Amino acid sequence: MLAIYKREMKAYFITPLGYVFLGVFLLVSGAVFCFSTLYEMTSDLTEYFATMLFCFVILLPLLTMKLFTEEKRARTEQLLLTSPVSVFSVVFAKFLAAYTMFAGATVFSGLYFIFLSFFGNVRIGLLFGNLLAILLIGMAFIAVGVFVSAVTESQLSSAILTIGILLGFMVVSSLSDYLPAEWLRFTVSALSVFYRYQNFSHGIFDIAALVYYLSITALFLALTVRSVDRRRWR
Fold it and tell me: How far apart are CA 152 and CA 60, in angstroms?
């Protein structure tokens, strides 16, 4: 698994994709930070993190769209699947490489908060609550992207479908206003990534939300393993 992880990490930097992702991520996060905090002359980071969640819908598919579609295009998938590693190891190594890129970019963007601390009172509890939520949501989103990459044939279709699914996870709670039954509105809202994020945004560690994000990650990685394993024996 380690060899596949290293291979995927290397692939991000021998092609423009890794540099494009890091550049766009830091450009977007920097712009959002400036307009949501510096321009507004506030140390409240709530708007910054909430906006970045919606930016992830576009940014994270850049990391995942090639993971399996590129193997299919280059006709190296069967060679990879017949190597002496389990399908789970292949899937998890690819997932871990994409998540490393995302987490690295997120941690690097933490320099903004150090800069902000010189000019305002940054509430550490809220900061770490939001950062933890961001990392958990990114993990779940990347797992979705890995699955979509495994079941699509091109990078473009993988990116578009992933964006659609992630957007659905984000906005599903807004549909609850149009549902007649209270229990149905609660159920639909509970499926929303943004709804589950609210407690973290106030510095409250939400175990139910943690389980929710981990469950999404495990579900889509399991679906990916199942999809890839089926192709392995064709």
Answer: 16
